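Below: protein 1.
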Amino acid sequence: MSRRIMIVDDSKLVRVQLEDVLKGTDYEVVAYCRSGEDAIERYDEVQPDLVTMDIIMQGMDGLDAAEIILKKHPDARIVMVSSLAYKDTFERAKAIGSKGFVDKPFHQEQLLKVFEEALL
């Protein structure tokens, strides 16, 4: 049984890279969102097993979007995928309840390890 993933990232390149990395795995991309607002709106409709969330996007950033989703759905599993790998960013992501953090650029092995840990 495949795990359903919603990718939230305003970069088409990153979305394509994530999809390529996940080909042939037990993960299926079921939705793409280009903004935090879109992710909040679509979460209920999609009901993904896991969300990858960029931090820097137009409009609402990924940390705020993740916080809103997690307040409404405390069991949501959100992994931050960002090049913004600073201590305060890690701490805020953890404080709001994200299940992991993957630095860009990412590699398949690193990504899958964080996904598996997030789904435990």
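Below: protein 2.
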Amino acid sequence: MKVKYIGKSDPMALINGKVYEVASVETEWYRIIDETGEDYLYPPDNFEIVTNKI
């Protein structure tokens, strides 16, 4: 699934308007590889779904 971040930009985390690939969904949060290159869980309220295709 691809999602677009709609929160405040942070160059060390997520960039507003950038599309990210969701690696997995865990307890309804999205595991995303952010700008640091590490994967973290983020709340889905901060994203718009671009595509549900895996």
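The radius of gyration is 10 Å.
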